[in-house]
Amino acid sequence: MNFAVGLKPLLAEARSMESLEKQLICPICLEMFTKPVVILPCQHNLCRKCANDVFQASNPLWQSRGSSAVPSGGRFRCPSCRHEVVLDRHGVYGLQRNLLVENIIDIYKQESARPLHAKAEQHLMCEEHEDERINIYCLRCEAPTCSLCKVFGAHKDCEVAPLPAVYQRQKVGALGGGVAGAAHPTGPHTHPTPSQSELSDGIAMLVAGNDRIQAIITQMEEICHTIEENGRRQKQHLGLRFDSLYSILEERKKELLQSIAREQEEKVQHVRGLIRQYGDHLEASSKLVESAIQAMEEPQMAVYLQHSKELLKKIMDMSKVSMSSRPEPGYENMDHFSINVDYVAEMLRTIEFQTEPLGEDDGDGPGDGSEATGDEDRLDSLEAPEAVEDVGPRQKPASSPHGQH
Known about the structure:
The chain has helices at 3-23, 48-58, 99-113, 116-121, 147-151, 163-172, 196-296, 301-320, 342-349, 370-390, and strands at residues 37-39, 45-47, 74-77, 84-87, 96-97, 136-138, 143-145, 160-162. Helix 7 packs antiparallel against helix 8 and helix 7 (196-296) packs parallel to helix 10. It is built from ten helices and eight strands. It has 405 residues and is mainly α. It is rod-shaped and about 180 Å long. The N and C termini lie far apart (142 Å). A hairpin with a 4-residue loop joins strand 6 (136-138) and strand 7 (143-145).
């Protein structure tokens, strides 16, 4: 006899009722929904009392309905999906009731009040003896069967017990011992059957495990949020540190450019001074030549003799003027202002994150400037020798910058 055919409707109905009950559990109180049931904008359901408790906890300053003051709206997160629920001034009383769920709960409670075996008992007929009801339980085979199977069929050599007695024993969790006075052999071929209390404990254990998993998921979501926030803050800090390096390079570039500009201006002014001296000398010499030519053409001998002596003295004095003041060879060279930044570039390429935590005195805020100051000091210490070596003292001409007339 195959008892599974007769027991299948019973098990299927039990599983259906259990699955339905799971859908009717409030995620807050973990009990079956109580009237009235409210439906959230995210389509999840809550007991109104549980929804109000969550709403009051998230909005402690919200005015209750009985308050004379005009209440303001509030918000809270759905405990099932974490969707933000925004409520108006009516609070949870402004949410729509889920009448369908309430009707399902009423039907479920009515069906649950009927004994499970009584609802399916009329369908449990023996497969081998179609007119016999299944009313006994084979303790050895652990299978419900009928009386004829015990007397003439496959279970004639087995120990049996009344089916209601076995059901009651499993329901109250009485494992081992007799079943309403029936014998229960404990030989190697018999196994204790699980009681309803054990199943309830198992369900409770799974529910508690699900709660723990949900708590872990929530915690990991918070960790993800914290990681994103910390990453954003560290990106900001890194940008500020590099901005400080850019400022140091710009300031140093400005100083070196000013050094080049100063020496350029000094050299140009010196050479232009020499040009003016030579120009003045050339102009005076040209005028003297012109005067000498005019004296040579003087037709009156007395006038010629009167001015020739003085003119000759001026010519001799002009020829004695030394015009040796000129820039030294290489005076125009500005190559000593070249710099070598290869080692600085290599140092910048080796910038890495700190592997050791900052000390108590080390600031970690974006505005403390401690790290920027350290970078500036290190860069200045590397730049100083190069500036002294490359710029050096400016070359001065050996001769006087002003020529003598």
